Amino acid sequence: MDAAEFFQYVIAGLKSGSIYALVALGFTMVYGATGIINFAQGEFFMLGGVLAVWFHGLGLPLPVAGIAAVAATALIGIAFERVALRRQRSASPLVLVIITIGGSMVMKSLARHLFGPDELSLPEFTPGPSVDVAGVAVERQALWVWGLTIVAVLLLAWLYRRTKLGRAMRACSISHDAARLMGIDTARVAMVSFGIAAALGALAGFAVTPLTQTSWDAGAAIGVKGFAAAILGGLGNPVATVIGGLVLGLLESLSVAFVSSTYKDVISLVVLLVVLFVRPQGLFGTAQRGKV
Amino acid sequence: MGADLRIAGLHVGYGRIGVVTDVDLHVDPGEMVALIGSNGAGKSTLLKAVAGLLKPSAGTIALGERDITGMPPEKIVRQGLALVPEGRMLFGPLTVDENLAIGAHTRPARDEGVASDRARVQALFPVLAERHTQPAETLSGGEQQMLAVGRALMCRPQVLVLDEPSLGLAPRVIAAIFEVLDTLRAEGMSILLVEQDARLALKHADRGYVMRSGEIALEGPAHELANDEQVRHAYLGGRPETRE
Ligand SMILES: Nc1ncnc2c1ncn2[C@@H]1O[C@H](COP(=O)(O)OP(=O)(O)OP(=O)(O)O)[C@@H](O)[C@H]1O
Ligand SMILES: [Mg+2]
Question: What ipTM is given for this predicted complex?
Answer without folding.
Answer: 0.93
